[in-house]
Write a structure and sequence with these properties.
- The chain is globular.
- It contains four helices and eleven strands, in the order βββββαββαββββαα.
- About 20% of the residues lie in helices and about 40% in strands.
- Helix 3 crosses helix 4.
- The chain has about 200 residues and is an alpha+beta fold.
Length: about 200
């Protein structure tokens, strides 16, 4: 329950149409919802990308105070005439019947070659709530960064992923100066900046 007292029961769906169904599914909804003043909105049209839950994992070596990040091409920044090769945390979408913990472990192995022994929960966030239902579960995985490096990815999915190891202070500096500008990596590195000392005992 939010501060306003409004929740999902205050929304009525009048029509639902699937506009596209592929790797991304796009649906259009006609809805009304209760307003803060107690009245009801006019019928609103909302297009929404429907995606399964996803995960992201920040890999951290507490002994060396280093993070393991991955670099790959992303179409979104390219369309904005921005640098399309992003430094990111490991991430991926779930398959039907797959737990998010299992997704995280699978994606870490596919993108970096690591097998993490334990995953620490960090946060659950909506990636872009105005446009999609995608909810991201963020984990921290502890690794020995001295063993990191190389190029990974699932070739059948067109993945070409390069692994980088950076001191935490350097990676966090890339957040503050804007070189790391994708939300999962920013959130993960800000969390790690606050909690990295606690992880040294793990």
């Amino acid at each position: 329950m939010k501060l306003s007292g409004l929740d999902a029961k205050d929304v009525d769906v009048h029509e639902e149409t699937t506009l596209h169904s592929g790797f991304l599914e796009l649906r259009q909804y006609a809805i009304t919802h209760k307003l803060f003043n107690g009245s009801t909105s006019p019928v609103l049209s909302r297009e929404t990308l429907v995606r399964p839950p996803s995960v992201a994992v920040i890999l951290f070596d507490p002994a060396r105070q280093e993070v393991v990040l991955v670099e790959q091409f992303r179409m979104g920044p390219y369309l904005d005439n921005d640098d399309p090769w992003l430094l990111e945390v490991v991430a991926g979408m779930s398959e039907p019947g797959e737990t998010l913990d299992a997704v995280a472990r699978r994606e870490v192995t596919e993108e970096t070659g690591f097998q993490v022994a334990s995953l620490l929960p960090v946060a659950d966030v909506y990636v872009s709530p105005g446009a999609s239902n995608e909810k991201l579960k963020l984990f921290c995985g502890l690794v020995d960064a001295s063993k990191a490096g190389g190029t990974f990815g699932v070739s059948d999915e067109g993945e070409d992923i390069k692994v980088h190891v950076l001191p935490l202070h350097e990676a966090y500096g890339m957040v503050t100066d804007g070189r790391i500008n994708n939300a999962p990596a920013v959130i993960a590195l800000q969390w790690l900046k606050l909690h990295h000392h606690e992880l040294q005992s793990e």
